[in-house]
Automatic annotation (TrEMBL), chain A:
One Pfam family recorded for the sequence: Transketolase_C
EC numbers: 1.2.4.1
GO biological process terms on file: glucose metabolic process; pyruvate decarboxylation to acetyl-CoA
Name of the protein: Pyruvate dehydrogenase E1 component subunit beta
Alphabetical list of SUPFAM superfamilies matching this protein: Thiamin diphosphate-binding fold (THDP-binding) (SSF52518), TK C-terminal domain-like (SSF52922)
Cofactor: thiamine diphosphate
One Gene Ontology term of the molecular function aspect: pyruvate dehydrogenase (acetyl-transferring) activity
Subunit and partners: Heterotetramer of two PDHA1 and two PDHB subunits. The heterotetramer interacts with DLAT, and is part of the multimeric pyruvate dehydrogenase complex that contains multiple copies of pyruvate dehydrogenase (E1), dihydrolipoamide acetyltransferase (DLAT, E2) and lipoamide dehydrogenase (DLD, E3). These subunits are bound to an inner core composed of about 48 DLAT and 12 PDHX molecules. Interacts with DLAT.
Catalysed reaction, written as an equation: N(6)-[(R)-lipoyl]-L-lysyl-[protein] + pyruvate + H(+) = N(6)-[(R)-S(8)-acetyldihydrolipoyl]-L-lysyl-[protein] + CO2
Superkingdom per UniProt: Eukaryota
Protein's organism: Neogobius melanostomus
UniProt xrefs under SMART domains: Transket_pyr
Role of this protein: The pyruvate dehydrogenase complex catalyzes the overall conversion of pyruvate to acetyl-CoA and CO2. The pyruvate dehydrogenase complex catalyzes the overall conversion of pyruvate to acetyl-CoA and CO(2), and thereby links the glycolytic pathway to the tricarboxylic cycle.
Automatic annotation (TrEMBL), chain B:
InterPro entries linked to this entry: DH_E1, PDH_E1_Alpha_Subunit, Pyrv_DH_E1_asu_subgrp-y, THDP-binding
Domain Dehydrogenase E1 component: 71-352
Protein name, entry field: Pyruvate dehydrogenase E1 component subunit alpha
Keywords: Carbohydrate metabolism, Glucose metabolism, Oxidoreductase, Pyruvate, Thiamine pyrophosphate, Transit peptide
UniProt cofactor(s): thiamine diphosphate
Oligomer and partners: Heterotetramer of two PDHA2 and two PDHB subunits. The heterotetramer interacts with DLAT, and is part of the multimeric pyruvate dehydrogenase complex that contains multiple copies of pyruvate dehydrogenase (E1), dihydrolipoamide acetyltransferase (DLAT, E2) and lipoamide dehydrogenase (DLD, E3). These subunits are bound to an inner core composed of about 48 DLAT and 12 PDHX molecules.
Reaction catalyzed: N(6)-[(R)-lipoyl]-L-lysyl-[protein] + pyruvate + H(+) = N(6)-[(R)-S(8)-acetyldihydrolipoyl]-L-lysyl-[protein] + CO2
GO biological process: glucose metabolic process; pyruvate decarboxylation to acetyl-CoA
Function: The pyruvate dehydrogenase complex catalyzes the overall conversion of pyruvate to acetyl-CoA and CO(2), and thereby links the glycolytic pathway to the tricarboxylic cycle.
Record-linked Gene3D superfamilies: 3.40.50.970
Length: 329, 381
């Protein structure tokens, strides 16, 4: 009997449910926390991430609304239906949220989380497919977090809610329904992951792959294919874009001597571009046997037709190709 | 009796000479001064309101002296800032508030420090009424470490408890104000938020988004400060009741705010106040302020509607204070400003070691990249 029940405890949890659990736990823990956004209440959330929360916590704490700002002692979680819509409120995110602590010399804190799906989806075309990681991570005063799996989603969202600073929390719509194993530790109410620390999802010796969000999964798939050819990839899941765990990347590059970055966003001024610059400025540069390779989304607005869309984002074959070019094999 | 008759005739003569509101002597004269008097003030235009602010109001001698002092302090502080700006000791943007003192002081007179207030960039006066000192305001303008934001914010970014600035982006403060009011409602603390904006912001979408949110859900207080408006802005919030108020008369502003605060606290929802006010300076220090209006107009407002003169006349003609007493306050205020200006011009600039501090709140110390890869700077919360 005991082992049967134990087996059930190692359960599979979808990313959406991990996010839901994180918010539920934090709403219960701190009455200053509340959620607002389009359709988050009665509709249970446009992507059902907030399902059940309105029923449990009511009108006071789960609010259907366009963007609103709170500075007087509360801890809001502001859901954007997608980060594309955050552009309507971006002045508030940058000028009212990000900069306020600094402008007031530490007097006025802004403990707010902006969360929602970021980056490409499926067939939603150009205006609904942009990745905003580089835009937000550009700005001091913000923290920018990009989870990949359910454990990331839960641990990082709880950390974001508990952080006294504005955190941009970028989810991915295509990941919401993907199940991942959750350890017992991850299921506990106190499971919090540190913002600013990357995770090595797969160790390897030949090349370092650095990625965030959905592309982490692609990197792992590429690594599995290449392992059969004797190429061992070390896959790093950034988890945080700002602050970025540069130390982890450098330590890995100093071991593997090769670096490939993989992201869904556009190449210019992107996450990979920043990693290249950081590597050049640090100790790992001298360990590179080849220039850093960036694998990115194609530098175009996202097209609609499936064949075009599929070829606008990094595919596993693109990652494999880039790794082999970097390794010169 | 003779003294009383003399006083009454003085009052009547004063009324005939100046354009002050009609006065009714209500309190007996004893000792030196009248402890309080009743004044008749202009009626507010109303929109979607069954009642209106009172038109007969009482001002006590103590209140009068206090209001006089604060208004005079704001006036002198702004004029000193003008001076320092022209001397290039204040840099960047500087939006001055002289002429509008009745608004800041009148509003604060009818709310509590436990209430909340947020405004745009013409914020020095409010920083003072909300608890800041002249010294730290001026040192912020000159960018010194003793400034209210340690020199990090400047003219447009000053904060005190329950005062959320000082906001540089036109209109952005309005949704923020609604958020503060939401927090008040959420916490059930019977506090309200006064949220101010000018005509620039009035045409923005986010103002109307805020009206919508405020009215639909949150029962907040929203108040409006306008420059001399020529259109019926106060009717714009179609579903929100409104008041149009003489913003040059401190007693009008105070009474209208009292009315508006009651309206909000009794759960009737948000209310719009259009305060018809006038700034003597241009929009900012780079605007001479005479390309869109005549000097004669400015002079006329100064001579007929100056808020400080109006209060002074009322108090003097009702024997609520003596000319000497008010002059003494002027001297004290002048000294406070001079001392503050001295501090503001001699306090050292913030230390370079603190350049990167306060990026984050309540966080571990982090390293910050400087201008080049070898410049590794430190940031503490």
């Amino acid at each position: 009997q005991g082992s049967f029940i134990d087996a059930l405890v190692v359960l599979q949890m979808m990313v959406r449910d991990a996010l839901n659990q994180a918010m539920d736990e934090e709403l219960e823990r701190d009455e200053r926390v509340f959620l607002l956004g389009e359709e988050v209440a009665q509709y249970d959330g446009a992507y059902k991430v907030s399902r059940g929360l309105w029923k449990k916590y009511g009108d006071q704490r789960i609010i259907d609304t366009p963007i609103s700002e709170v500075r007087a002692g509360l801890r809001p979680i502001c859901e954007f239906m997608t980060f594309n819509f955050s552009m309507q409120a971006i002045d508030q995110v940058i000028n009212s949220a990000a900069k306020t602590c600094y402008m007031s010399a530490g007097f006025q804190a802004v403990p707010i989380v902006f969360r929602g799906p970021n980056g490409s989806s499926a067939g939603v075309a150009a205006q609904h497919s942009q990745c905003f990681a580089a835009w937000y991570a550009h700005c001091p005063g913000l923290k920018v977090v990009s989870p990949w799996n359910s454990e990331d989603a839960k641990g990082l969202l709880k950390a974001a809610i508990r952080d006294d600073n504005p955190v941009v929390f970028m989810e991915n719509e295509l990941m919401y329904g993907v199940p991942f194993e959750m350890s017992e530790e991850a299921l506990s109410k106190d499971f919090v992951l540190p913002i600013g620390k990357a995770k090595i999802e797969r160790p390897g010796n030949h090349v370092t792959l650095v990625s965030h969000s959905r592309c982490v999964g692609h990197c792992l798939d590429a690594a599995a294919v290449l392992a059969k050819e004797g190429i061992e990839c070390e896959v790093i899941n950034l988890r945080s874009i700002r602050p970025m765990d540069t130390d982890a990347i450098e330590a890995s590059v100093m071991k593997t001597n090769h670096l490939v970055t993989v992201e869904g966003g556009w190449p210019q001024f992107g996450v990979g571009a920043e990693i290249c610059a950081k590597i050049m400025e640090g100790p790992a540069f001298n360990y590179l046997d080849a220039p850093v390779t960036r694998v990115t989304g194609v530098d175009i607005p996202m097209p609609y037709a499936k064949i075009l869309e599929d070829n606008s984002v990094p595919q596993i074959k693109d990652i494999i190709f880039s790794i082999k070019k970097t390794l010169n094999v | 009796k003779l003294k009383m008759l003399t006083n009454i005739s003085n009052v009547l003569r004063a009324c005939a000479q100046r354009n002050v509101a009609a006065v009714v002597m209500s309190a007996r004269t004893y000792a030196d001064f009248t402890p309080e008097a009743t004044f008749e003030i202009k009626k507010c235009d109303t929109f979607k309101l069954d009642e209106a602010p009172a038109t007969q109001v009482v001002l006590t001698r103590d209140e009068g002296l206090e209001y006089y002092r604060i208004m005079q302090t704001i006036r002198r502080m702004e004029l000193k800032a003008d001076q320092l700006y022209k001397q290039k000791i204040i840099r960047g943007f500087c939006h001055l508030y002289d002429g509008q003192e009745a608004c800041a002081v009148g509003i604060e007179a009818s709310i509590n420090l436990s209430d909340h207030l947020i405004t745009a960039y013409r914020a020095h006066g409010y920083t003072l009424t909300r608890g800041g000192t002249v010294k730290e305001i001026m040192a912020e303008l000159t960018g010194r470490r003793g400034g209210i934001a340690k020199g990090k914010g400047g003219s447009m970014h000053m904060y005190t408890k329950h005062f959320y600035g000082g906001n540089g982006i036109v209109g952005a403060q309005v949704p923020l104000g609604a958020g503060v009011a939401l927090a008040c409602k959420y916490q059930g603390n019977n506090q309200l938020c006064v949220c101010l904006y000018g005509d620039g912001a009035a045409n923005q979408g986010q103002i109307f988004e805020t009206y919508n949110m405020a009215n639909n859900r949150y029962g907040m207080g929203t108040s409006v400060e306008r420059a001399a408006a020529s259109t019926d802005y106060f009717r714009r919030g179609e579903f929100i009741p409104g008041l149009r108020v003489d913003g040059m008369d401190l007693l009008c502003v105070r009474e209208a705010t009292r009315f508006a605060a009651d309206h909000c606290r009794s759960g009737k929802g948000p209310i719009l106040m259009e305060l018809q006010t006038y700034r003597y300076h241009g929009h900012s220090m780079s605007d001479p302020g005479v390309s869109y209006r005549t000097r004669e107009e400015i002079q006329e407002v100064r001579s007929k509607s100056d808020p400080i003169s109006m209060l002074k006349d009322r108090m003097l003609s009702n024997n609520m204070a003596s000319i000497e007493e008010l002059k003494e306050i002027d001297v004290e205020v002048r000294k406070e400003i001079e001392d503050a200006a001295l501090f503001a011009t001699t306090d050292p600039e913030p230390p370079l070691e603190e350049l990167c501090n306060h990026i984050y709140y309540n966080d571990a110390a982090v390293e910050v990249r400087g201008t080049n890869p070898w410049a590794k700077l430190k940031s503490v919360s």
